[in-house]
Specification:
The complex is a heterodimer. By secondary structure, chain A is mainly β. Chain A is about 0% helix and about 55% strand. Chain A is built from no helices and eleven strands. Chain B is mainly beta. Helix content of chain B is about 0%, strand content about 50%. Chain B has strands at about 5, 10-15, 20-25, 30-35, 45-50, 55, 65-70, 75-80, 85-95, 105, 110-114. In chain B, strands 2, 4, 5, 6, 9, 10 and 11 form a seven-stranded mixed β-sheet that branches. A four-stranded antiparallel β-sheet of chain B has the order 1-3-8-7, with no helix packed on it. In chain B, strand 5 and strand 6 form a beta hairpin. The chains are: A mainly beta, B mainly beta. Chains A and B meet through strand 4, strand 5 and strand 10 of A and strand 4, strand 5, strand 9 and strand 10 of B.
Amino acid sequence: DQQVKQNSPSLSVQEGRISILNCDYTNSMFDYFLWYKKYPAEGPTFLISISSIKDKNEDGRFTVFLNKSAKHLSLHIVPSQPGDSAVYFCAAEVQGGKLIFGQGTELSVKP
Amino acid sequence: AAGVIQSPRHLIKEKRETATLKCYPIPRHDTVYWYQQGPGQDPQFLISFYEKMQSDKGSIPDRFSAQQFSDYHSELNMSSLELGDSALYFCASSLATAGSYEQYFGPGTRLTVT
């Protein structure tokens, strides 16, 4: 049973435009979410996180939005750059610290 | 800045053999996590340690065991290897005492069982 879902396996965006990656979760007890970026043959790299007491967190070109009532979060990348091309994982932190990951979305930013 | 170190990066074993994967967390991090990522899948939590004590356990087979040593490095021991154990194994570390939930991942060990 997938508790964290990324329903889009891939996304293609033009350089300079906005990339929006979506994530849904089923457990209303989740209260901390993280986004990771992963290149092939490397480990996931932490990007940005958000606590459930907030609905938005921003770090440079990356903004994460959280809609608790809809159990939905999204990662916005503006402007998108070719170097952003990677697989993006959404994750929920559960009690004890372990992360539950979504299936990942492969972002391709075309020049 | 120092990152999480994993060794070996690649490992090829035959069925029924044993394997040991090592993880060296970021200095001063007190918590280590192990994850398994099968082909085309998301990382799945296996086990974690906080201050050298097992803190949580996920879908880890009984054939696997792990520990964290006094220098905070961790080892994942895998016995009676099966073809289905072929996967990327990631170690991550965090500083739980700082109230930080961010986990920092190593590059992974790619295990191939033939």
